[in-house]
UniProtKB/TrEMBL annotation, chains A, B:
Catalyzes the cleavage of L-kynurenine (L-Kyn) and L-3-hydroxykynurenine (L-3OHKyn) into anthranilic acid (AA) and 3-hydroxyanthranilic acid (3-OHAA), respectively. InterPro entries: Kynureninase (IPR010111), PyrdxlP-dep_Trfase (IPR015424), PyrdxlP-dep_Trfase_major (IPR015421), PyrdxlP-dep_Trfase_small (IPR015422). GO terms for cellular component: cytoplasm. It comes from Primorskyibacter flagellatus. Pathway: Amino-acid degradation; L-kynurenine degradation; L-alanine and anthranilate from L-kynurenine: step 1/1; Cofactor biosynthesis; NAD(+) biosynthesis; quinolinate from L-kynurenine: step 2/3. One of its GO terms (biological process) is anthranilate metabolic process. This is Kynureninase. NCBIfam families: kynureninase. The gene is kynU. One of its GO terms (molecular function) is pyridoxal phosphate binding.
Length: 396, 396
């Protein structure tokens, strides 16, 4: 599959090599017009009737299904809304409620901190002696014991790009009587995911990274069909009610995945996301994966030759890798600032990770080679040593 | 104060009298250009650096302060994010944690159902014998006893427009040792609110109704300064962490109101909201209130003459009224459909409420008189009896 066509579907700034699509995907060319339509023709002209006439109310399910199709999830098992942290809370609360006799949430130190924080907040609120047990990524499999209520893991490590074996860990969890919750933040649009074959119980993710839905795009949640009508919603908002517009005094959960909706969806964000999903319609995930691995291999090779001492943080084995390449450098922050000053945008993750998203939809071999050359030059000439690269911004 | 200037700041469709700004405010004229700038110049050009360079990360606090200024809240006590249901959950969870020895959440039957649902979900999760006690609106004051942990009330009833006496109920709550949580969904931008003088402990609201922030605009939460550094965040997401970008393994709540942030904010929605708040900069809330009451009185008078039997659901006393006028009619749904077919947009709320938002920013005396004439005609000629007005849409 040739990705020059998808590259043409994005607005990429001149002179920039964008290796941070794992943090915020770029602007689809169709987004501006689509958002403008939602603003002027829908909000402006339809006003309140847009909820029906423009389909706003249905959009979290309609777009949820389109994301589900990328993840091997059946129709009606994915819905959009809120942020990933909120969706993790919903999944975890439902899972703990399904396993009342077990007290351990098992996660790993490669999980995104917000997932751990949400678990900590939930545990404090429940006040029932739950424990968040955090082990090293490579120790997760052995730590799945009969104490575990829920395994809560981000499939691809946000720092290193290390990828867990979702089907194997899920199978082990099930074998021990635990449920498996997967955070797909760095998987959706990055690697082939099959939630059905992988037998995940719950999954969540965000849509502004590899899916390119735009800054603040809504999160998604998947609930396996066998749990969807019994999962108890902790965040029991009106749009998850069986009949939201009956305005009953008592909550009754909606059918299936609908119960995971909470409040009013972010209509403008969904308009942007829709144009991003249009691009995904034509993409073969297996071809994308092949291209991603080839670009990653190229980046590693191009750095190894001039900088043999640079520490690769990402596993080289394809099966253990997501769609990013990370290196460790003691001056990682300043190195990244020097890169950005030269038009190569990646990001830094404390304490020492240089992180580069590999996104074949709009990044080519030439981009990767050029970025590698610039990085090698910065390291070779210690260009990171300039004072201006050591100033810290609010968001790094 | 003359509101012809503010009316000019909105795009209102031709031939429509829009009396549903209490459900979704209309489009500010400046919004389309502002959103387009965020999409093309910020997302498109700045990409990930927009979080700092375009101020996206600070926006929930910056806009929160601007909303706080409309509500008598000091700088640094209001932050944007999520939906109103989620913010209610946060406020209620924090309040219950502050009153561990009391088990009653007191609310009323005029509260928006989602608030009640969120309380029910929280209670089920806590599983500590809490009770949601729901009384009639006029019985709230007497029901505030020493059993009550938190009073959770929507100031203005979404159906009837009845307004509670916030300072009096809050004072009674405090007298009995309870905390007061106020939902300002139908207050913010509708009536003068003074959270400081009213001594509210927590307050939440949405920004897409009277504030005109657009479909899916984020909610806001206020925490009184004396609680802000001790309130425990149930939804302990990374952006509420003391140092989000340190990526620590353990959650430590941020300073003050910042801890009520959860996940990535909805950047496009905030751009729209910003233009709506620009309009509010020039508005005198006391003048707005005076105009709102006059328009409401006019609507009541114009309906009473031709339809003396129509039941007014809104209290006539100014002090007990928000900024909407509601009537009860047994065929309310069909009456509203007949009105909408004639260009008068209000909404219907089950079981029998015809609800009309009174929004002097863009609604004039002529609009109100014209709407009243059309409604009188529909009732007089029983035009609601046509079959096409009895079809139910998904969202009503």
């Amino acid at each position: 599959m040739d990705f020059t066509a998808t590259r043409e579907m994005f607005d990429l700034p001149e002179g920039v090599i964008y290796l941070d699509g794992n943090s915020l995907g770029p602007l689809p060319k169709a987004a501006a017009e689509r958002i403008s339509r939602t603003v002027q023709d829908e909000w402006g002209e339809m006003l309140i009737t847009g909820w029906n006439r423009a389909g706003w109310m249905a959009q979290p399910s309609v777009l949820g299904d389109r994301i589900g199709a990328l993840l091997g999830a059946p129709t009606g098992s994915v819905v959009l809304g809120d942020t990933l942290s909120v969706k993790i809370y919903q999944a975890l609360a439902a899972a703990l409620h399904m396993c009342p006799d077990r007290k351990v949430i098992l996660s790993d130190s490669g999980n995104f901190p917000s997932d751990l924080y949400m678990a900590q907040g939930l545990i404090a609120g429940l006040d029932k002696g739950h424990e968040l047990r955090v082990v090293a990524p490579e120790e997760v499999a052995d730590a799945i014991t009969e104490e575990v209520a829920a395994l809560m893991i981000t499939e691809v490590d946000y720092r290193t790009g290390r990828r867990h074996d979702m089907p194997a860990l899920t199978a082990k969890a099930h074998d021990k009587g635990a449920l498996a919750i997967w955070d797909l933040a760095h998987s959706a649009g990055a690697v082939p995911v099959d939630l059905t074959a992988g037998k995940a119980d719950f999954a969540c993710g965000c849509t502004y990274k590899f899916l390119n839905g735009g800054p603040g795009a809504p999160a998604f949640i998947y609930v396996a069909p066998q749990h969807a009508d019994t999962a108890q919603p902790a965040l029991s908002g009106w749009l998850g009610h069986e009949a939201p517009f009956a305005f009953d005094a008592d909550y009754r959960p909606g059918q299936g995945i609908e119960r995971m909706r909470v409040g009013t969806p972010a209509v403008l964000q969904m308009a942007a996301l829709e144009t991003a999903l249009d691009i995904w319609d034509g993409v073969d995930m297996q071809a994308l994966r092949k291209a991603s691995l080839a670009l990653g291999d190229l980046f590693i090779a191009e750095m190894r030759a001039p900088c043999p001492d640079l520490t690769l943080a990402t596993p080289e084995a394809h099966a253990m890798r997501g769609s990013q390449i990370s290196f460790r450098h003691p001056q990682g922050y300043a190195v990244m600032q020097a890169l950005i000053a030269r038009g190569v945008i990646g990001d830094f993750r404390a304490p020492d990770i240089l992180r580069f998203g590999i996104t074949p939809l709009y990044i080519s071999q030439d981009d990767v080679s050029a970025a590698a050359k610039i990085l090698a030059e910065i390291l070779d000439q210690k260009l990171w040593d300039r004072p201006e690269y050591h100033k810290r911004a609010a968001v790094t």
